[in-house]
Amino acid sequence: MLKDLIKKNRSTRGYDRSRKVTEDELKEMVDCARLSASSINKQPLRFYISNDENEVEIINSHVKMGGLLPELHLPLKGTEPVAYILICQDTKISFSKEGFTKDVGICAQSITLAAAEMGLNACMIGNFIQKRLRDAIGLDERYEIKLVIAIGKGIEKFEIDEVSENQSTNYYRDENGVHHVPKVRLDDVVISRNKQNH
């Protein structure tokens, strides 16, 4: 069921380094993104895949994870991602900075859900300096990196916590290392006519 995949599709910041991700698996994830919706069907997004150990180490050094848990310095040593998909915009197709941001989100969700269906995990990462990362991997300047997605077999445990709309939504880890993801309750996110009048 789709909802079960969505529940499994948590941002993962610790991976089993012995489980490699193949090029075919990465291409299958990209194929799901390719087939997804695109604004005016322009399709300016391109996808840089990497499972080469040396290049993955370079990408690891240019991205940061777990912004709400800086004291943990995630990922922990020895649990780094083993593969990446970089969602890029080909500026020769469209130079619009904002016009295709929703396409990035749609494609990212398709990629991470495909990973979840394969029994893998992912983490969408926006904390990187685009030009530095692009230069580090030798990517042509026509491609602007919009989002980085880490891929691998996760080793973390997750709990989804239901919270009311006035409670904190900050994720956290408990004393057992379980990663808690607060999600606002369904009744609090649905807008109804009756609710607006109160």
Spell out the key features of this protein.
single chain; 198 residues; alpha+beta; NADH Oxidase; putative fmn-dependent nitroreductase like fold; 2 domains; 4-stranded antiparallel sheet; 7 strands; 30% helix; globular; Nitroreductase; Nitroreductase-like; oxidoreductase activity
Commentary on this structure:
This protein is an alpha+beta fold and 198 residues long. It folds into two domains: 2-156, NADH Oxidase; 160-189, putative fmn-dependent nitroreductase like domains (putative fmn-dependent nitroreductase like fold, Single Sheet), CATH 2.20.180.10. 30% of the residues lie in helices and 22% in strands. The protein has helices spanning 2-8, 23-34, 53-60, 101-117, 130-137, 186-189, 193-196; strands at 45-50, 83-90, 121-125, 143-152, 158-163, 172-173, 179-184. Helix 2 packs across helix 4. It is globular, with a radius of gyration of 18 Å.
